[in-house]
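Hello forum,

I keep getting stuck at the same step: I have a sequence, I want structure tokens, and every attempt I make locally crashes halfway through. Rather than fight my setup again tonight, could one of you with a working pipeline run this one for me? It's a single chain of 583 residues.
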Amino acid sequence: MNQTYGIAGVTAVVLATVLVGALGLRISRTTSDFYVASRSVPPRLNAFAVSGEYLSAASFLGVAGLVLAQGVDMLWFPIGYTAGFLVLLAFVAAPLRRSGAYTLPDFAEARLESRAVRRIASVLVVGVGWLYLLPQLRGAGLTLRLLTGAPSWFGGLVVAAVVTVAVASGGMRSITFVQAFQYWLKLTALLVPAVFLLLTWRADHTPAPSWDERPVFQRSTPVRFDSPLTLTVHEPVRITATGTVDGRALDGGPHTLEAGSHRIGADTTLRFPPGARVPLPDEGGGHAAPSSWANPLSAGREDHGLYATYGLILATFLGTMGLPHVVVRFYTNPDGRAARRTTVVVLGLLGAFYLLIPLYGVLGRLYAPDLLLTGDTDAAVLVLPKRLIGGVGGDLLGALVAGGACAAFLSTVSGLTMSVAGVLAQDVLPTLGIRHFRLATLPAIAVPTAANAVVSDLPVADAVGLAFAVSASSFCPLLLLGIWWRGLTAPGAVAGLLLGGGSALTAVTVTIAGGARSGPLHTLLAWPAVWSVPVGFAAMVLISLATRDRVPASAAATMARLHLPEALTGGAVVRDAHPDRAV
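Reply #2:
Ran it on my machine without issues. Output:
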């Protein structure tokens, strides 16, 4: 990727984000403006903003990378990301808006009249938000590393600084316009290059991927290894090597890799000829194993593919409704009917976007298989324009893609920082107010930025899947039972949040820390939704039945307000706190 063009594209997106965020201070005058845009965002604009912040680095970069590496099983990610809004539309959107809350902890306290439930919900909101922020910052680091050669942590630091300025200056009202713009930028950044990539593919006689075998190099391809690696070669291949191979120093001359394992030294470049099959790294080689790419569950993740698939489906289908940056956007609608209309439009916008992502994964399998060796599969979307098209055209399209990637992590990081800071400002800092909200943006983004410097090898989309699992195990039971079951009690909610959400959060933490790297235990911890979601529901139901006398006295009135149109109830459950306080 041409660094000059790419940096120009990213800089343009960053400047636009900072400018709109700074101008937001001029139109955000009250606390309600700052937190929920005075609940006056029309459905269509809100749908653009929801889609803009929801389509994160995991969607823009990570899904294509997973399709490139692991094949058709990974299509469950875009399916689940979209279908989650269908569940949200059917069961949650309108009642949640009628609650009148600022945050999920607001809703929990109003529904169950319990500070304990609020505090636990606050901890889980912050945990989910930070988990979701990690892969966004990793995507930022990957993009800027490809553009400038800077270390990965630098990109996360830049994004954290930009988002802090934008969120702290303008709040929800300005972020709404930024995220709406960024959705269309991301769609354009994928759609326009896709047209030219398909034309180039046709001009190359439409080669098909190796559906049931390891991918092959379509062209002479140099692969640089920054760190030592052991490769497994299945048939002899003639290469050109500069660096160290099997302890032998080579200076750019021809060399034959015989069948078997070979140790590649750091700072070594190997050039593979056209038609050579991609050798497999010893670590993680199972993801690209023969007969695994185009056949669902054929070489499964850790030999438990069906279980992992169900874990992914449950996490993405049920986790969307509890994502703090998604939920907070429904509070900005004028009423419940507008919230439903917003969700319907979002389904169409997400569908249009996700139709393009598998294309990049398939083309990456053809023209960027070397990413399987370096581990940078998340970079497939970024490198394809230069690989296929080249020249000035490839550089311009690469700059557009880089700008879209920048918009992806900026929009999602803005939404997540906004939601986490809102919880910290209300439940950690002493009083509710704009000054404390601005202070809360610092820890909201600083903690995941610091963690990103430590956890750098987890695939972007996989990391997002972990956040979905925690959300599905905690807030899905709380919202569904809180909205649709009058018998939910505070002790039941506490038990469900602790057992469901707490166990999922523990499993995710162990997975990220590398506590279990293989075997059945690893599978259970890496895909916890299969068992943690039922645990959360069962705990809430059983403990609530055992504590029937603890049903809030206002439960019937609260349920009526959640389900009846606003005109019939005369207002929401939770009133705006300090709606006229000036910024």
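DSSP finds 23 helices and seven strands in the chain. If your local run keeps crashing, start a new thread with the error log.
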